[in-house]
Amino acid sequence: MSSDGATTIKPLTSPLDGVAQVPGDKSLSHRAVLFAAMAEGTSHLEGVLDSEDVRSSIEAVRALGATVDMRTSDDGTLAGLVTGWGDRGPVQPDHPIDCGNSGTTARLLMGMLAPWPISVTLTGDESLCRRPMRRNTAPLMKMGVQFQPSEADHLPITETGNAHLKAITYDAPMASAQLKTAVLLAGVYADGKTVLNEPAPSRNHTELMLPLFGVPTTAGTRVASVTGPAHMKACDIHVPGDPSSAAFLCSAALLKRGSHITVEHVSLNPARIGFVRTLERMGADITERRTGAEGKEPCGTIEVSWTQALHGCEVPSQHFASIVDEVPVLALVAAHAKGLTVFRGIGELRVKESNRLQAIIDGLEKIGIDAWEESDNLFVEGNPSLVVDPGTVFDSRGDHRLAMTWALVGLCGNTPVEVEGFDCVSVSYPDFLSDIQSLAGQQ
Ligand code: S3P
After folding, report:
1. How far does the centroid of ligand 1 lie from the alpha carbon of residue 443, in Å?
2. Which of 78, 246, 336, 388 lies deepest, with the highest CB count within 10 Å?
3. How many whole angstroms separate alpha carbon 249 and alpha carbon 20?
4. Catalytic residues
């Protein structure tokens, strides 16, 4: 994503106060659109995130023959109908599929395309074309899929599916929901049981959603399986709010003195709210309350109050998968806490939308915080009385989670800051700035 120059982010004039809703969950929105495209019949989707990443998935399934008729609702989310290809399979597209910035689109499509005898070239923006893909192609090749070039670790890559896929049992080398999902989606059409074991539990949205589309699925703590061949049937999905977006509002409330907010109707899937557990460990006044479920996804409210005495903490590596997208903003909160915070086993951050590990260290250095990495661990030496220099400039590196993290320095701090390439927030949370400003009564 190209840089759009710097955006000036000014301090909020009042604390955050009130009730907020965040846009639809990104992971669930991708899955709702993609699985509906695979299914026979017309699915009705609501609460789908309207962001660039999800639009990449929508455009991809359109190019593959699904019909998507979705409109913006009053609450800003997308709602409407997706008619899938079912057992007829996708059509051969006449151009490469551009997945934009979206790793989820690219990696999940690899699994979806696996059973069909068409050749599809997948590509993406500069950031996505740098991200590792071999983790996905390796198990899919074991199932019988071909990739060209076969040893490629990066997009663009051309995939040719196989109508006679082999069901496999695969021990994933890392806890990655995108890898797990790709294998399970291929397994939907393989003959027999496809099993995916993982070293730590990654988000389990796929296992929770596939049964709604009629796929025999099991979901364990570090293991998931599907039994194929299955016939996916359309269903109705309502996507709850995104806890990863809620994490930014909650962190803002912890950084802005006197704040107290409640985020409503957000997914409380335990694999996604590791940030609540981490903030609790730092001494934050934060609680979640379950109010119901959307499909098999628990959801409810998260309530948080500004807390004076945050302290550093140790975040063990088994917790990493549940905070994989929240480490940048948690590191910023740790920078304001007393003492040392250690995030263990987070090397995977090097291959996200940017090298987030390095970006966190570089960004925190700009605000005078000592942060360093040592064998896949991140250390942050907090300073509760840190003062930011006027005119500090942060580089988003085209990475939405970094853009929002550094924006919080300006919003909740003592002086305006500049964030270069801030517009990339449109990938996951287009209204991020106005949502925070309106919680502070500034609109
Ligand atoms: C996602 C899985 C995670 C996460 C990404 C969304 C998903 O990636 O970081 O933002 O929807 O499956 P990995 O599978 O690479 O851990």
Report:
1. 33
2. 246
3. 9
4. 325
- Alpha-carbon distance 39 to 300, whole Å? 29
Cα 405 to middle of ligand 1, angstroms: 18
Mean pLDDT of 252-272: 98
Query: What does DSSP assign to residue 390?
Result: T
Three-state DSSP state, 213: helix
Q: Which of 154, 199, 190 is nearest to 172 (CA)?
A: 199
What is the 203 CA–ligand 1 centroid distance (Å)? 8
Q: pLDDT tens for residues 123-138?
A: 999 999 999 999 999 9
27 lines ligand 1 (CB under 6 A): yes
Query: What one-letter code names the amino acid at 429?
Result: Y
Return the sign of the alpha-carbon dihedral for residues 80, 85, 90, 94: negative
Total length of the chain = 443
* For residue 1, pLDDT beyond 90: no
314-315: strand order across its sheet: 314-315, 339-343, 377-382, 370-374
Atom of ligand 1 nearest to the CA of 180: 14
Q: Over 60: is that where the pLDDT of 4 sits?
A: no
- Residue 3's pLDDT is 43
- The residues near 374 (Cβ < 8 Å, ≥ 6 apart) are none
Backbone φ, ψ for residue 149 (5° rounding): -70, 145
What is the edge-to-edge ordering of all strands in the sheet holding 223-228?
169-171, 192-197, 223-228, 217-219
Strand pairing class (236-238; 285-294): unpaired
Find where tokens 């409810």 sit.
Answer: 300
